[in-house]
Design goal:
alpha+beta; four-stranded antiparallel sheet
């Protein structure tokens, strides 16, 4: 087990004081009491309590400052190892009924006939695929049992159980989610108990104050404008398909349902016409505009699902593996440069020295790699696309250099 850096000053002094203890410490296992609760006798009466009357929104605890865990370089492979601090993750095995073994020749990037279709993949450690619930159709409150690491994705997953049926399932954990929290899905509609707790009011803002909490799954039309969401679906009744990897999120920017019943000052005539058209049930009002992390704006069906919050493990991209062997454990094989190959293996191969033969950079199949090979469709454009993601943007340093050159030319 890798151990973080520890202070080794006064080692001799500690040994004299504590001769029977070791300096290396391990995490202690948490003792959980599994004794069953006393049964409820026939004489005891359990009053019916509305869970939404006393429900308190979980406080959004501020994220701790970003930290990377480094290790004392006992071996060369640990010297450059950097890992995000995730001490809240479960240290045991996964819940086996919700997993199945990862087997087959597809692990090596091959198809059903054994031909390689994806290069640089193969081997790696044995894994079990976790079955993730991307639909979240089960209503009612669910309790988060623990947060786990999933080798099949970059985000963390949460093991939850239904408070009514005790059925367990895996979901993608939101950033900041911890064991013991309550999450709920409102895809089947608003429960009657919640409406009773609100006094029968159907105000959109009041309902959002009770439902738009971290980890809850809602239809897009129930989410207020400006809310960050992840696990976004694309179709009515479909599963989540967008923003599922670590640290990704989208923002609801075009939900007009939260403003449909309110009259605000300074609203333009065009916006009033849109509200009136929405009340009449226009076809365009079936969709909600969502801005993805890439900057692209899409129209998505208002009954598609989305989960409040950001996908967990947002510091995943800051890690350093430290050695090549860790990539092999992940099933990633080495990538060889074309210049280092023979002429029969790659268009850049052969010749004396590091020369690619004065040709344009191409792939192993001869396709242009740095522009020139068009991949965007001119016909059959996505009709749900509102704004394309920004392309061909220069970095800030290049933009400053251009400005300096232009100023020198002017002078």
């Amino acid at each position: 087990m890798l151990q973080p850096r520890i202070c080794l000053r006064h080692v001799q002094h500690l040994r004299t004081l504590l001769p029977y203890t070791t300096l290396r410490t391990y995490a202690e296992s948490q003792v959980i009491d599994h004794t069953p609760a006393p049964p409820i006798t026939a004489t005891t009466t359990v009053p019916e309590v509305n869970p939404y009357e006393s429900s308190v929104r979980p406080e959004d605890t501020p994220e701790p400052p970003f930290q990377l865990r480094s290790y004392k370089p006992r071996t060369p492979g640990i010297r450059h190892l950097r890992r995000p601090v995730n001490d809240h993750l479960h240290r045991g095995r996964a819940y086996l009924p919700l997993t199945f073994p990862r087997k087959g020749q597809h692990i090596g990037g091959r198809n059903n006939s054994g031909q390689i279709r994806v290069r640089h993949r193969g081997n790696g450690a044995k894994r079990r695929i976790r079955i993730i619930d991307f639909h979240r159709n089960a209503p009612g409150k669910h309790t988060v049992e623990r947060i786990e690491y999933d080798p099949g994705r970059t985000a963390h997953i949460a093991l939850v159980h239904n408070n009514a049926t005790k059925e367990k399932s895996y979901i993608v954990a939101a950033q900041g989610m911890r064991a013991g929290e309550q999450v709920e899905s409102f895809r089947e509609g608003i429960p009657q108990q919640l409406l009773d707790a609100l006094g029968g009011s159907t105000d959109v803002g009041m309902i959002a104050a009770k439902t738009a909490w971290r980890g809850n799954c809602l239809p897009l039309h129930m989410i207020p404008t400006g809310t960050l969401v992840h696990n976004v679906g694309l179709r009515k009744g479909g599963k989540a398909q967008l923003c599922r990897s670590a640290g990704t999120f989208a923002m609801v920017i075009g939900n007009k349902e939260d403003d449909a019943g309110t009259e605000k000052e300074g609203v333009s005539d065009a916006e009033k016409e849109d509200v009136e058209r929405q009340k009449k049930g226009g076809k365009k009002d079936l969709y909600v505009q969502v801005r993805l992390k890439s900057g692209e704006v899409r129209r998505i069906h208002k009954d598609a699902c989305a989960t409040i919050g950001t996908a967990s493990n947002s510091n995943y991209n800051r890690r350093q593996l430290g050695k090549a062997g860790r990539s092999r454990w992940l099933g990633i094989r080495p990538t060889v440069r074309g210049v280092a190959m023979n002429a029969s293996d790659h268009p850049h191969g052969g010749g004396r020295g590091k020369s690619k033969g004065n040709v344009q950079p191409v792939s192993i199949w001869g396709q242009l790699t740095k522009g020139g090979y068009k991949t965007r469709k001119k016909r059959n454009v996505n009709r749900f696309l509102v704004t394309e993601r920004p392309r061909h943007q220069q970095s800030a340093s290049k933009a400053k250099k251009k400005e300096k050159k232009e100023k020198k030319k002017k002078h």
